[in-house]
Amino acid sequence: DVEGTPAIVLGDGSNLKCGVGAKQNFMCYPSIGLGSAHTLGVALLSAAIGGMCSTWIGFKGVFTGASSLGFGLSGAIVALYALYAGAELDQTTSVQRSFQDWVWLRLIFVAFHIAMEWIRGVSQRDAAGLFSHTAAFASGFGYVLYFLPPMGDGSLLPSDRPYVVPCAYDSSEGLVVGGAGPQCVRLFSQLYEYPVPTVQHNAMLLFIAVVGFTILNIVVLQRGTDSKEAALLAGMEVSAVCVRKPAGAQGARPPSWRSSNLEGKDIILWCDVMEVSNLLAPAAGSNFKPFVEVRLTDYDHKRAPESLAAPPAASTKTRAVEGAVKLDFRECLFLPTKFNKATFVQIVLLDASENTAGVIVGAASMPLHQALRFNKKDYNEQTLKFSVVGDGARVGAGRASVHVVFRSLDKEEVPRLRRRVEKELDDRRYQLRFHEHELEALTTVQEAGGIQGLPDINA
């Protein structure tokens, strides 16, 4: 609709595009689009306007531009159809068919789209997203009114800009209609007629106002915001502005991990230890009680094995279980830390038996920034292979692997997560009490002999 209708030959030999082909198609689509160049212009302008307006409400938020781009194209479609209907171009087409009802039907589709967006924005309390989409829609509408692009490719309409018409004058004021008079555009009907210079002037003023207020918001209203603030989005580091990398000693280029804008930010590493598999079956009479410890250190244990004996910067562990080929833990571990790309996550397998209490038998590690690298998800699921440490060969640590899931939390997210977990626990307790009361009632009825043939629920 925005760019133009393609000339596609249909099964009956007619063409989808009106005015093309020898066989007439009464269900053809009119080509009243902007063309490729102006479609690109609408996309760029609407994405830019939507992005700027989103900072007015959520300056520290992270927004994507695809939705704003789509609403900008919708705004351009509405402007095209408004100009088509206002200029009554049905009377000038080269095809013997009325497109007025078709235009209004397409406008109804766009209206449904906008109504659904408002329902979504209000129900989800997404004021920033709703305002951004509305601004992008208005920018697409304003682009068409300012640049007045050619309508169609000449196959349907007699001229490039048939919607630009002479202004209608009021004869009571002594004015007459003349070809040399000012040009106007009409939106939807002759009731909404506006001179072209006035429309273009107002559109330019709105654009200048948006840019000006965005600059004012950045320079004055948000001057207290640290330019180095960043966030983790799908495992990628996103910051509002480009910050120069800190210079290394004597002009040397710093390591890549020191260029991060997240360096030093307080986060919580959330590690779900699911299971350890492929261990050797415990021998008869052996005492093996393994548990897993998650550590944050500055070393990779493969390059610095002695780091396993050093105290970690942060650590937490699972419960100890009985030795088996497959160990099922399914525990959530949380480690508060400061983000640093030089940090490593060590997954250590230890033996808690009486004879070898706390002895490490296997270890695996990976950099922290790789553990928090998500691919279109809010978590990173990994299966890490252990390497043998000490006498770990006796339990098969060399062939064993650990299944873990990594997530990242900001400190502000912890209270919300805790409330959600507490609510789920309350719901489960309520369901448990309900079933317990139901079981007690059934037991009472069975003991009283009120129901014949009821099976023994205690069997």
Features:
elongated, 5-stranded antiparallel beta sheet, 459 residues, alpha+beta, 19% strand, single chain, 4-stranded antiparallel beta sheet, 7 helices
Descriptive account of the structure:
Helices cover 34% and strands 19% of the residues. It is of the alpha+beta class. Strand 2 (183-186) and strand 3 form a beta hairpin. It is elongated. The protein starts with 35 loop residues before the first helix and ends in an 11-residue tail after the last helix. The model is unreliable at 171-176 and 247-259 (pLDDT under 50).
* Approximate shape: elongated
- What count of helical segments does DSSP give? 7
How are the strands of the largest sheet arranged? 8-7-10-11-13
Instruction: Specify the helix fraction band.
Output: 25-40%
The main β sheet shows up as: 5 strands, antiparallel
Which sequence of SSEs, written as H and E, runs from N to C?
HHHHEEEHEEEEEEEEHEEEH
Question: What integer is the average pLDDT?
Answer: 81
Structural class computed from helices and strand pairing: alpha+beta
Number of E-state strands: 14
Report how far apart the termini are: 70 Å
Overall radius of gyration: 34 Å
Poorly predicted residue ranges: 171-176, 247-259
Strand content: 15-25%
